[in-house]
Write a structure and sequence with these properties.
The complex is a heterodimer of chains A (about 110) and B (about 120). Chain A has about 110 residues and is mainly beta. In chain A, about 0% of the residues lie in helices and about 50% in strands. The mean pLDDT of chain A is about 95. Classes of the chains: A mainly beta (about 110), B mainly beta (about 120). Chains A and B meet through β5, β9 and β10 of A and β6 and β11 of B.
Chain lengths: ~110, ~120
């Protein structure tokens, strides 16, 4: 079965650079979520989209933005990168009316030097 | 706000012994509870969920969890641990208050199964 696809899997950037992460949800899933997991931390919710509209917002810095496109894939854009942005970024998808589980991708590891 | 707590940073158990990873929850309304497992540098894999129905929920890889409303707990259990079960385990609750249903995770418990 198709899973959530994230790219790139690994990314190395310098401070103050920008980075873009991509997420392709499971087909027919209408909701996408972005999470950030710092070293030794639990995943923290950043932002979610339902039917291409932002549906919820968590602890996402103002330097970050995200959107969901017409084909339902989503991109997380990060600017003015800081050392503290180094983390594993997960995307997850689900059907909104489903109270079941979220399906997670393998994550994108961002390292800021 | 919905939340879950995992009181143990690490649980150590010998292979073949039963294991329990604890989770307590705080929710308004009906709880939607989940367990996920994370192996090093990997994504979060779904293990099991409680939405409604039987208090004992069976999931993947021989894991089960018991929903206890009076104790507001949702402990993860396995009758006989394997070395390959060593991983990071997260309890989570689905925040349905806003209608947008994101998952809120606990702080995680590292399970170490020794041979």
């Amino acid at each position: 079965a198709a899973g959530v696809i994230q790219s790139p899997r690994h990314l190395i950037k310098e401070k103050r650079e920008t980075a873009t992460l991509k997420c392709y949800p499971i087909p027919r899933h209408d909701t996408v979520y972005w999470y950030q997991q710092g070293p030794g931390q639990d995943p923290q919710f950043l932002i979610s989209f339902y039917e291409k509209m932002q549906s919820d917002k968590g602890s996402i810095p103002d330097r970050f933005s995200a959107q969901q496109f017409s084909d339902y894939h989503s991109e997380l854009n990060m600017s003015s990168l800081e050392l503290g942005d180094s983390a594993l970024y997960f995307c997850a998808s689900s059907l909104r009316e489903n109270t079941g589980e979220l399906f997670f991708g393998e994550g994108s590891r961002l390292t800021v030097l | 706000a919905q939340s879950v707590a995992q009181p143990e940073d690490q649980v150590n158990v010998a292979e073949g012994n039963p294991l329990t990873v604890k989770c307590t929850y705080s929710v308004s309304g009906n709880p939607y509870l989940f367990w996920y497992v994370q192996y090093p540098n990997r994504g979060l894999q779904f293990l099991l969920k409680y939405i409604t129905g039987d208090n004992l929920v069976k999931g993947s890889y021989g894991f089960e969890a018991e929903f206890n409303k009076s104790q507001t707990s949702f402990h993860l259990k396995k009758p006989s641990a394997l070395v390959s079960d060593s991983a990071l385990y997260f309890c989570a609750v689905r925040d349905v208050n806003t209608g947008f249903q994101k998952l809120v995770f606990g702080t995680g418990t590292r399970l170490l199964v020794s041979p």
